Amino acid sequence: MIKKVVLDKADRMYHFPFDLEELFPRRTLRSIDKRFTLIDLGRFRWPVSGELAASSTAGNRLADRDDLNEIKQSMIRWLKSEFGLRAVSPKEIYIGQGIRRMLLDLCLAFIESGDVVLYPEPGIPFYKRQVITADGVPVPYPISEHTGYKPSTKKLASKLGGTAKMFILNNPHNPTGAMLDGTDLTDLARIASRENVFIVNDAAYCSLAEEKYVSLLSVPGGAKVGLELFSVPFAFGLPYIPMGIAVGPVSVISGMEIMGRAIGNVVPKAWVGPTIEAIDQYPCPALREAIKSISRSRLEAEQLVEKFGWEMVHQKSTPFAWIKTPGRRRTSPLAQTLLTRKGILALPGNAFGENGEGYFRLSLTASVEDFRAAAERLAKRMTILPKTGE
After folding, report:
1. pLDDT tens figures, 69-124
2. In the listed set 223, 247, 280, which residue is the last one of a domain according to the structure?
3. Nearest-angstrom CA–CA distance, 118 and 191
4. Mean per-residue pLDDT of the chain
């Protein structure tokens, strides 16, 4: 008789945070659809439509070295035009499968067992996940109203910061929408240099900011202490594809490339032409229209927030609205109430970590009509969401 073999999960599996989508109750969503139309203000849906299907000439082939080098040359021109970076070489650019995967490549290449990595909280769950995957030790640093919704550098400058190997920055920041200026970034680079901590900036939404975005690489010392990660679809206005570009020191890019080849870094040849065209035409019409759409939804979100006495963090750098709940109520029950009683989907702030408690996030990729419909539906019964102070 052959005994069944049980394969135990690795311990790291029990420390992974949930993905944001896993916070949406699927069973409740199915039941809501049967009662009335769901108003989805929670999920991020990139507004640029279309598919980058392989053409008849490209077939299913992958991009070769020459293809990738063409993208790098376009990226070099863009970096010079947008941020004044003049000395970037192709060896300082890595083309990977989106920011999530590029961060994993980076962590696997440079994080060893027990290495401390500082990450923002509230923040995107995959930061913590990628560090755990590389057997590092993820340690959160706070982003809150007390810090002006900007990263607190106290932990970086502390004894713990001195032992950290990497500092993950998300600028502009999801979910709060806060964005650092040149002075903030210069101070951060100075502290990182002093403490010998490498900065990794997730700049996914840099092109969607209504204010002028300042690159970490453009401030004094920034290029010596940091790496910047860009999302190809969000930065340049393409339909969603899992493709990103990292810019940083040659030694770091080389390590990411080695790890990318080891795991399998796939960039279809069909993506090359549209990517080069979008970078060279920056900002392309599709990106301009996406920014306008997000701005229109932001205005509707502001009116919704004002009407019901909530408090909105007025940052205009990401396609999200970060909402402070009345009396700092717990967000999961509030989001559940919105969903079950009103059919409105919002993302509770604790999806981004403990420091997100007392807030919820609305996605500005929802349409103007969605926000107006939500306001109409909420107005029918005000008891579930008391105004601030009630």
Report:
1. 999 999 999 999 999 998 899 999 999 999 999 999 999 999 999 999 999 999 99
2. 280
3. 14
4. 89
Same domain membership, residue 75 and residue 93: yes
Closest CA to 174 of 12, 29, 365: 365
- SS3 assignment for 188-233: HHHHHHHHCCEEEEECCCHHHCCCCCCCHHHCCCHHHHEEEEEEHH
Question: Is the pLDDT score of 27 beyond 80?
Answer: no
Q: How far is CA 264 from CA 93, 219, 258, 261, 372, in A?
A: 17, 33, 10, 5, 45
Q: Is 32 part of a structural domain of the chain?
A: yes
Q: How far is CA 249 from the centre of its chain?
A: 22
Task: Indicate whether 357 and 231 sit together in one domain.
Answer: no
Same structural domain, 177 and 295: no
CA distance 67 to 133: 31
The residue segments making up the domain with residue 250 are: 65-280
**Model confidence, pTM:** 0.92
Report yes or no: 168 and 118 within 8 Å, Cβ to Cβ.
yes
pLDDT digits 0-9 by tens, 274-314: 999 999 999 999 999 999 999 999 999 999 988 888 889 87
Q: What's the CA gap between 245 and 95, in Å, rounded? A: 5
Tokens (6 digits) for 125: 């769950």
> Which residue type sits at 138?
P
Peptide bond into 122 cis (omega under 30): yes
Same domain, 211 and 75: yes
- Interatomic CA distance for residues 275 and 169, integer angstroms: 25
Residue 373, domain member (yes or no) = yes
Sign of CA dihedral 173, 178, 182, 187: negative
